[in-house]
């Protein structure tokens, strides 16, 4: 799988990613819990609390690569059930799980699930007060296109927030994290999802993603201002925040 990813072109990369998420859709949240030791929940809460959506009707957000709607539900809850969200994902299996779950939990009046590609959003200009993307942008072949699209669909004054794996900056933790990534995660993938290759691929995609500073400059290039970031768990993940003016 390492060899595959190294030679893969954009289409192959996207096809590979699609395949992974079709396979894991139903077990996706369980896998997240196992692989992050439950930390992904704290990281997602940190993103939503940094966003702090207003508790008033009419505030709109789009959660890109929103998968099973986990982030979107947290945002709606934090807004006192006022926010209106669009959950966009390239993968119909993830969206299906998300839409079912939203209905069961009574979030269906707040959330719309649509299939689409982060690189070319089928959404009008200047529509949203916030654009969020969690553990998604790493999977998009052309990150610069996704960022340009984020900028386009935000209203002036709109907020961009991205949660993604990043570069560990704590001595000692980096070695532990390597063992976890290259040994434990593929093993968990094999045991729980019966798919070692896909999880090796995901680990590799984390390592290839730009670090905090480089990603911040890409966000700036897309036209955003006031780009800042916060590290989570020693940089295992980071949240980048920026504004469109
Ligand atoms: N945001 C969710 C969360 O945090 O639980 C899901 C994250 S999951 C790791 C990555 C998601 O990105 C998958 O649902 C996948 O289908 C989606 N994805 C991958 N490439 C995409 C693209 N080009 N456009 C939109 N979504 C994409």
TrEMBL record:
It catalyses: a 2-methoxy-6-(all-trans-polyprenyl)benzene-1,4-diol + S-adenosyl-L-methionine = a 5-methoxy-2-methyl-3-(all-trans-polyprenyl)benzene-1,4-diol + S-adenosyl-L-homocysteine + H(+); a 2-demethylmenaquinol + S-adenosyl-L-methionine = a menaquinol + S-adenosyl-L-homocysteine + H(+). Its EC number is 2.1.1.163, 2.1.1.201. SUPFAM superfamilies: S-adenosyl-L-methionine-dependent methyltransferases. Keywords: Menaquinone biosynthesis, Methyltransferase, S-adenosyl-L-methionine, Transferase, Ubiquinone biosynthesis. The keyword S-adenosyl-L-methionine applies. Pfam families: Ubie_methyltran. The keyword Translocase does not apply. GO terms for biological process: aerobic respiration; menaquinone biosynthetic process; methylation. Pathway: Quinol/quinone metabolism; menaquinone biosynthesis; menaquinol from 1,4-dihydroxy-2-naphthoate: step 2/2; Cofactor biosynthesis; ubiquinone biosynthesis. GO terms for molecular function: 2-methoxy-6-polyprenyl-1,4-benzoquinol methyltransferase activity; demethylmenaquinone methyltransferase activity. S-adenosyl-L-methionine binds at residues 68, 89, 117-118. Belongs to the class I-like SAM-binding methyltransferase superfamily. MenG/UbiE family. Methyltransferase required for the conversion of demethylmenaquinol (DMKH2) to menaquinol (MKH2) and the conversion of 2-polyprenyl-6-methoxy-1,4-benzoquinol (DDMQH2) to 2-polyprenyl-3-methyl-6-methoxy-1,4-benzoquinol (DMQH2). This is Ubiquinone/menaquinone biosynthesis C-methyltransferase UbiE. It comes from Consotaella salsifontis. The gene is ubiE.
């Amino acid at each position: 799988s390492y060899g595959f990813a190294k030679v893969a072109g954009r289409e192959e990369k996207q096809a590979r990613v699609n395949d992974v998420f079709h396979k894991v859709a139903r077990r996706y949240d369980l896998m997240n819990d196992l692989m992050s030791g439950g930390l992904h929940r704290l990281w997602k809460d940190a993103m939503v609390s940094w966003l702090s959506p207003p508790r008033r009707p009419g505030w709109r957000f789009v959660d890109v690569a929103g998968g099973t709607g986990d982030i979107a539900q947290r945002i709606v809850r934090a807004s006192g059930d006022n926010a209106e969200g669009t959950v966009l994902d390239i993968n119909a299996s993830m969206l299906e799980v998300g839409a079912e779950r939203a209905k069961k939990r009574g979030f269906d009046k707040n959330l719309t699930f649509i299939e689409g590609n982060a690189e070319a959003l089928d959404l009008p200009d200047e529509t949203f007060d916030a654009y969020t993307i969690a553990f998604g942008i790493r999977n998009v072949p052309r990150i610069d296109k996704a960022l340009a699209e984020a900028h386009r669909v935000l209203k002036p004054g709109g907020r961009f927030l991205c949660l993604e794996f990043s570069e560990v900056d704590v001595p000692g933790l980096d070695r532990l994290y390597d063992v976890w990534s290259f040994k434990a995660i593929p093993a968990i993938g094999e045991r729980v999802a019966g798919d070692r290759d896909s999880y090796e691929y995901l680990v590799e995609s984390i390592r290839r993603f730009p670090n905090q500073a480089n990603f911040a400059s890409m966000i700036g290039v897309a036209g955003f201002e006031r780009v800042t970031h916060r590290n989570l768990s020693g940089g295992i993940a980071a949240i980048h925040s920026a504004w469109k003016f």
